[in-house]
Request: fold
Amino acid sequence: MAALGEDRNTPARDGGSISMRVGAGVKVYAGSLVARNATGYIVPGSVATTLLGMGRSESQVDNTGGADGDVTVIVRKGVFRFANEGTDLVSIADIGNDCFIVDDQTVAKTNGGSTRSVAGKVVDVDSDGVWVKF
Reply:
């Protein structure tokens, strides 16, 4: 393709939410931390080294009887509060650093000895949990 020689109506998405295909055999709950697995499908957050935190699920989706991609879920990008892992606490000193997925509602300070994937960036920490940017 050549460089533009005239105006172009470039398609856009707002980036605030995206529809993503759900992995086989999983159930995703509304409000949960969801991740993309190594093959590109959405799964609930869990301890694994092959996930990438994607954001918050906007609805409950049940694909327990389905194949990869049989259903989709809206994943919201932004900053969300999740639980702070009690044995590996994120603190205010970690603001700006990555935090790591423990499960679909919990993040931790460390990668757990190279067993956890990155959830997102720590934005704040309060008595109710960790604010994570996706």
